Amino acid sequence: MPYPEGVKKWLPALILILMGALYFWTRQRGMSVAEQVAHLPSGDGIFVIADGSVVKKLAGDGNGEEAEYRVFVQKTGFDYRRDLDRLVAVIGEPHSYFVVSGRFDWPKIAAYSGNCVKGVCSMPASQPGKWISLMALGTGAVAIAVSPNQLAVGEMEAARKPLMEYSDVPFLVKGRGRHFARWGLSGEEMVEVKLAGDALELKSGAVTRLLPLAKIFE
Q1: Which of 19, 122, 162, 200 is least crowded, fewest Cβ atoms below 10 Å from its Cβ?
Q2: Mode of pairing for the β-strands spanning 199-204 and 207-212
Q3: What does the alpha-carbon distance between residue 180 and residue 164 come to, in Å, rounded to a whole number?
Q4: What is the rounded distance in angstroms from the CA atom of residue 125 to the CA atom of residue 131?
Q5: What percent of the chain clears pLDDT 70, i.e. is strictly above it?
Q6: Model-level pTM?
Q7: For 78-129, what is each residue's pLDDT tens digit?
Q8: Interatomic CA distance for residues 45 and 42, integer angstroms
């Protein structure tokens, strides 16, 4: 059935408007937890899901933040207290991987790193012998790797290992006891961590430990 002349006239403009609206929506909605987790390449470590508000609470008042971080905020415009929506991560040794969603100015972040090749940027980490590598994922997300491999973030788009079970929640931390050695746990039994007021509750079988938030990074 032929379109009326008026519809034929406006149809191309309408299609362009709808395509623009769809593009804007996909750019603004950010990644889901499942989409972020899908970029993590390894399940060997402490698995983390944390909304920005939880990260802010865990970090405390920020009075002890290093001068290096303040310079980073100044030069990139990104402050996790304001701009981070969610992070997912596998934190281990010698590699840790993160996918963070929020509001980023990627050109500024790339310029701050000072070393970018084909979309992968890197810079020395504060830990001797390690590098921080970064890559924009689109839809307001950045992949980050901390590793002896200068370009380890590229592995996040290669082969992946199955991750442990998880759910879409504001805060989830779990991993085997050996990854929590600095907090007095060990072994292969699974540890689950929950927020308990101003502390973290680490539970492994019948063992429960409370870790004050102020002591997490000590």
Answers
A1: 162
A2: antiparallel
A3: 16
A4: 5
A5: 83
A6: 0.82
A7: 999 999 999 999 999 899 999 999 999 999 999 999 899 989 999 999 889 9
A8: 8
User: How big is the chain, counted in residues?
Assistant: 218
Walk across the sheet containing 141-147 and list its strands: 116-117, 120-124, 131-138, 141-147, 96-102, 84-91, 46-51, 171-176, 190-196, 199-204, 207-212
Residue pair 145/153 in contact (Cβ under 8 Å)? The answer is: yes
From residue 36, how far is each of 20, 105, 124, 127, 143 by CA, in Å? 24, 19, 25, 26, 9
Predicted local confidence at residue 62, as pLDDT: 63
For 196, the token pair is 């308990």
* Residue linked to tokens 């905020």: 73
- Quote the pLDDT of residue 89: 95
Poorest-pLDDT segment among 67-76, 94-103, 142-151, 170-179: 67-76
Classify 153 as helix, strand or coil: helix
Q: What is the largest CA-CA distance in the chain?
A: 76
